[in-house]
Amino acid sequence: MSRGLGDVYKRQKHSNVSIFIPHNGCPHMCSFCNQNKITGQAYQPTPFDVEQTLDKAASDLGERTKNAEIAFFGGSFTAIDRTYMLSLLDAAKKFRDKFCGIRISTRPDYIDKEILDILKSYGVTSIELGAQSMSDDVLLANDRGHSAEDVFKSSQLIKSYGISLGLQMMTGLYKSDIQKDLYTAETFVKINPDTVRIYPTVIMKDTKLAELYLNGEYIPYSLEKSVNLCSKLIELFEKNNIKIIRLGLHYSDSLVNNSYGDNYHPAFKELCENKLFYDKFIEKANEFSNPNEIKEVIVNSKSLSKFLGQRKSNVKKLNELGYDFSVCFDDTLQKYELYLK
To answer: At what angle do helices 148-160 and 113-121 cross, to 10 degrees?
Structure first.
């Protein structure tokens, strides 16, 4: 096994094989970015690394490779040195018949017809754009180096090639606020990507954002504020049939040890889902004249833990408000549906 391969290869729970290329290809140092500390490594994978990684993954996953993608993440894939990019794609293409596709992550301003022709020829099936915000003032303040219009144009072009589109957004960026974050999400809905990732801003050390935070110029969202917002985003994207494939950053010791503030939580998505169910209960309970009228809460059985909350936090809070109920199941309900009777 070659040097650095243990850091290069990450098998996600959905069985994709992610190959990290930390901060490679990015023409800008965004205010929030310190890829080395987010991923915990700075090693740039070679084509040999990619082949060994995919060979091992194929062996480990067995039949599951048919439902797994090869994923190049961590940098701006289409902005890296062209020879290097092609060498990585050449390595990945050797395993293309074993996996269901190739996914890449890149910048909105590094997509054009020439690059899409290349990616299509190598069997790339999914492209995720790091849009982060759809407010130009927020993009400018965070040194993104692209505009919201770049996101619109690249998204349209990717979809015209029949390639699956993913959009990534960050909540709570410098100069952003709740309304601007909601605007970004609502604009994503208009673009209609296949998938989205939602990342609450985490302040990494040795970044411009860290300097702004330490100087008191940037006040991050609290964990509670982030959870309240992202619970609404879950419902918005679910309602519009846009799949959320990530909510919150993956856990790593490096991330926890090299960040400021309390906006990171290893179970962030679960907190947001708990909040979503709590709010739904309160909304529907307001239709009753008396808390004692509510005898049953009906949810999909797969959503039980989401409704109950961490350590039954939702139930405890509702009990304190005077609600006393039993939980029943109806598996015809959607994931986030809830009824009271």
So the answer is: 40
User: Angle at Cα 273 formed by Cα 321 and Cα 328, nearest 5°?
Assistant: 65
* Residue range 224-267, pLDDT digits in tens: 999 999 999 999 999 999 999 999 988 777 777 888 888 788 99
Q: How many H-runs (helices) and E-runs (strands) does the chain carry?
A: 14, 13
Neighbours of 281 (CB within 10 A): 23
In the structure encoding, which two tokens stand for residue 120, read together? Answer: 């299509």
What distances in angstroms separate CA 328 from CA 274, 304, 337, one per listed residue?
17, 9, 13
User: What backbone phi and psi angles, to 5 degrees, belong to 31?
Assistant: -55, -30
- Segment 130-181, tens digit of pLDDT: 999 999 999 999 999 999 999 999 999 999 999 999 999 999 999 999 999 9
d(CA 333, CA 246): 23
Q: Closest by alpha carbon to 157, among 122, 188, 201, 127?
A: 127
Round to whole Å and give the CA distance between 291 and 341: 11
HEC string of 25-47 equals: CCCCCCCCCCHHHHHCCCCCCCH
For the entire predicted model, the pTM comes to: 0.90
Q: What are phi and psi of 312, to 5 degrees?
A: 55, 35
For the residues of 55-120, what is the DSSP string, one character each?
A: HHHHHHHGGGGGG-EEEEESS-GGGS-HHHHHHHHHHHHTTTTTSSEEEEEE-GGG--HHHHHHHH
In angstroms and rounded to an integer, the radius of gyration of the C-alpha atoms of the chain is: 21
DSSP code at position 251: P
